[in-house]
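User: I'm putting together a teaching handout on how sequence relates to shape, and I'd like one worked example. Could you take Nitrite reductase small subunit NirD from Streptomyces racemochromogenes, show the sequence you're using, and then write out its predicted structure as tokens right after it?

Assistant: Happy to. First the sequence, then the structure tokens directly below it.
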Amino acid sequence: MTVELRVAEGWLTVCELSSLTPGRGVAALLPDGTQAAVFVDRAGRPYAIGNQDPFTGAHVLSRGLVGWSAGRPFVASPLLKQRFDLESGRCLDDEEVAVRTYPVRTAATS
């Protein structure tokens, strides 16, 4: 199974699902030059958000800590610790801030 992100050009294969460790992220360089942070939870569900921390400008969200709050998965930035909902991209600590989310799916490898 591969993890694929929906980008302007269509579905982009990022990596094998088995290459992801639950609770840890990986950074993916996208065709437009931006980065996505890709995660998988313990149930095997993948998530993808923008990798740039909007508070610092650093591309580090893939290095953040994954957790759950009120039944929602989030990643905490490794720099200033703001938490970003992995489904909506909304910052849980500042409702005026959000990061981009990407549609993500798993697909069988041929």
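A couple of points you could highlight for students: The two ends are 9 Å apart (CA to CA). The chain has a mean pLDDT of 95.
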